[in-house]
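Can't attach files on this board, so I'm pasting raw text. These are the components:
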Amino acid sequence: MSLLEIKGLKAGIETGEILGGIDLNVEAGSTHVIMGPNGAGKSTLGNVIMGSPAYSVTDGSIIFDGEDITKMAANERAKKGLFMSFQNPLEVPGLTLEAFLRSAMRERTGKAVRIFQYKKELEETCKLLDMDEAFVERDLNVGFSGGEKKKAEIFQLLMLKPKLAILDETDSGLDVDAVRIVSKGVEIFSKQGGSLIIITHNTRILEALNVDRTHVIVKGKIAAEGGSELIDEINTNGFEKYI
Amino acid sequence: MTDIARKDTPIDIDEGDSGIILEDVERGLYDFKDEEREEDFFKVDEGLTEEIVREISETKHDPEWMLDFRLKSLRIYNELKVPKWGPPIDGLDMEKIVTYVRPKTDMKASWEDVPEDIKNAFDKLGIPQAERESLGGVGAQYDSELVYHNVREDVAKQGVIYTDMESALTGEFEEMVREHFMKLVPPTDHKFAALHGAVWSGGSFVYVPPGVKVDIPLQSYFRLNAPGAGQFEHTLIIVSEGADVHFIEGCSAPKYNVANLHAGCVELFVGKNAHLRYSTIENWSKNMYNLNTKRAICEEGGTVEWISGSFGSHESYLYPTSILKGDNSHAEFTGVTFAGKGQNLDTGARMVHIGKGTSSFIDTKSICKSGGISTYRSSVEIRSTAEGSKASVNCGSLMLDSISRSDTVPAMDIRTDKADVGHEAKIGKIDDEAVFYLMSRGIREADARAMIVSGFANPVSKELPLEYAAEMNNLIKLEMEQG
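---
Top answer:
Structure tokens for the assembled complex are below.
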């Protein structure tokens, strides 16, 4: 049984359908890459899997870890082990990254977070990602640079340790150093056995990872599938032949 | 008509230059006595009578001058009309004002009559049963003297006087009370100030001698005060030259009262180079008309800081005023207002710059949900004398749904070009995408919303001592859960 099984998924917003029937299986511990031209529905797919109320599912199902989560609230999906690194992480003034993470961890485990151990973990994760510890005391994403926001997403990924993480263009718009750090974080997550769905336009983030499967989405449908060789093929020829 | 009211007002507020200033300050944006016509006057048939006021005075063992003051206030009260510029207060039965002032014994609530939402709130806030009954207005009142006593001993060593108003008035501080009582907020200010002057009862008196810095915040256990204290209480704080004190008033528990009018009064006198921080969390029951008047005056180099959390009440008019009389004096107002279902809260602040080089800073957050209305109203006045002054206003509103309403009414009156004034206003709705973002990490929807709202109110809660900040966050959570 796959960790994630998506069957005939159709979803959209009030004004129209965006996903026109997606099938996708992700095995535990594997790394999948989703590519496609702008507006193809890649981010929509990520958001729908995570349970964004901005989209409604009109057909099909999402099974995660043996349970149908198609109608589940986002927080319940998170508790089951789903995670998404947002393309545009939201700013929440007055809520520190540290306090937010602590609440999230308490909610996921149903137990009080042991402060000493938690602080130690915060410290270690900061070191891994080359982040100043003062970072966690700042308000969630408020005044963060683009790179800092993405680093904060990976920081949360490593702290929360989900089973499956969707990375929605986590590497876009970052400078070389930031991509290196973000990639390092993703690599650690993968080596710990985490499954990945990586939505991306470029390949730098993939260099240290073993990509098991590549899916090309065009106009809300899977237009092509293959192994990691498909990435090279698209990098050379673009999406034209699939449109 | 305004002038007639004044001429008939034999209250001496023309003492020295502060008297002139007060006279002047009265005619502000919030002046309740604009153009009055004879027919607008409220006719007192079964209203408040001299007998009732005399009776109150007698039970309080007032000195003679206080009885006179009450009777003068009563005359002013009967002449002034009800304000019409803010939230409508038609629900307040002015013809039966006497019942607000002197609740009949048969109006006394029984525990069964205390509304369910208030009982639930007591549960959620963890208020002990004995206090609940007192808060619900049905139990035996605590002895306010005892509560004050413990705190008093600690600070008494420093020469600080911290007692209830009645004790101050009838004891050795009578003269000090007489010099200051309702000099900042004269009964002529508005109808409810006059009412307060006539029937006030309870409250706190604080005097900090020159140069004394009080380390621990003085906390007024509002809920444990004398009968009627939560209705017309008077707070008088005098901070002498170079002294420093933090005073905290209020509690997060909703206060239920069968008589649903609150017309309290706070007067703060901040001496030369003195510092006063005045923090309040108010959470009135949802049937309450909260018509409270708070005012501070700062001498040269003095600082007043207001921290204010306004919750509950059916309607509120609340605009703490800071009069920056002395050169280089400074005022800050940090406030949060939460208007839920059936609530119309009109809150803000007023800054009056008179001295040179004075500065003021306003930072407010208003939250409304479930059809609640919150209006931010402020006035910054920089007189021609206040050269080199600075003022900054920053107000933010957060609407949690599309049926609630938020208004911003900031007024500025700048009479010198040698001043630096800034203003920023933001009105926004809660961001569904942000709610989803927090939920995607495992946070429940209601908690996600509460976190966003608490974060929005954080500029206020971070100024409060830890236990009060925690209380305020609980209160926000509670308000978020209610319909």
